[in-house]
Design brief:
The protein is of the alpha/beta class. The protein has two domains: about 350 residues, Divalent-metal-dependent TIM barrel enzymes (TIM Barrel, Alpha-Beta Barrel); about 55 residues, no CATH class. Helix content is about 45%, strand content about 10%. α3 runs parallel beside α5, α10 packs parallel to α11 and α11 packs across α12. The two termini are about 40 Å apart. Keywords: Carbohydrate metabolism, Cytoplasm, Isomerase, Magnesium, Metal-binding, Xylose metabolism.
Amino acid sequence: MTDFFKSIPTITYEGPDSDNEFAFRHYNPDEVLMGKRMEDHLRFAVAYWHSFAWPGGDPFGGQTLDRPWFGDTMDLARMKADVAFEMFDILGAPYFCFHDADARPEGATFKESQRNLEEITDYFAAKMEGSKTKLLWGTANMFSHKRWMSGASTNPDPEVFAYAAATVKGCMDATQRLGGENYVLWGGREGYETLLNTNLRVEADNMGRFLQMVVEYKHKIGFKGAILIEPKPQEPSKHQYDYDVATVYGFLCRYGLEKEVKVNIEQGHAILAGHSFEHEIATAASLGIFGSIDMNRNDYQSGWDTDQFPNNHAEKALAFYEILRAGGYTTGGTNFDAKIRRQSLDAEDLILAHVGGMDTCARALKSAAALLADGSLETLRRDRYAGWESEGARAMLQSDLTSITADVLARNVNPQPKSGRQERLENLWNKFV
């Protein structure tokens, strides 16, 4: 035990009228919605990097957080893990997620870094034996160290590609060892700054082959979880290859991976790509590649990803509605890829940020579930497309332009506009949020 969270109680559900800030007002893990416990719907995960490795910096200022486990030794890495699992237990968090670099110190060589990862993986495994918290997903940090400045799998240097391949293998092994339910590839540097020094075909082909290798290794070791790509636009590279869900799907199809890989969608990245969170989720679901989400929000007055904890349940309800429409998570979950503000220095701030985020998501889920159970919105949606259920409409899709033109002339077709009823639907939505 450490004393970092001393005097902070285990967080329990007390209901919407509670005045206890160290209690859930909306997140009741055992509440049943649509035949499933709320905990099993939401599958919350704590992000190891933001909660325990982030020092409080931003693009214009350095470290503000002073944590007793900050440093580059295995003893401090073990202390970090002790604190992390204490927080998981306080929150009752069912899952966590981590990058290799969050959990272990960087070694002087790859061999040393890998040994450190294996040691901390064993330490995680021992901690997990006494905790309800499981691993939602593991991943590799292939963006922070200077070796990744020109990409990982897209790097013009084959030695960096090799280092990236070895790094991912080690992280996949760690994820498998810990019973992780997914493995995520986060292409933070898979993009370019200028075409003057870039060969787009070589970089795309190498990235595609790298992902094929990842899938091949998944099957070789018998990993039962999903392989996920996290779409990410313009941060930090100017032109990201994994810009949004649609771009990722096109990439997967190009390299024959659309049946093997799904997406982990982050709210902040969706906004940076010029989309809404719910758009990206719905697009992924329609393409059959929806996997998991990173839950956060952006400061809409800033032009970059601020990774703040969610606090607007009405905004998040649209996202959860699309998740429920898609059938909910399978191996995925709701990972808080969010960090406290650099002025929020106390242990209490870290706990309360997660309490608020979990309550926001729970309230959003309840609104989404109520509307879906009501059925009105889906009925109106089906009515709008009812014409396509006719025999004639289905036959037209199997026809050709010449035949369709002949039919239009014969029937003297002159269709008139029909209202999309957007305001009516928005009013319906607002009844539930």
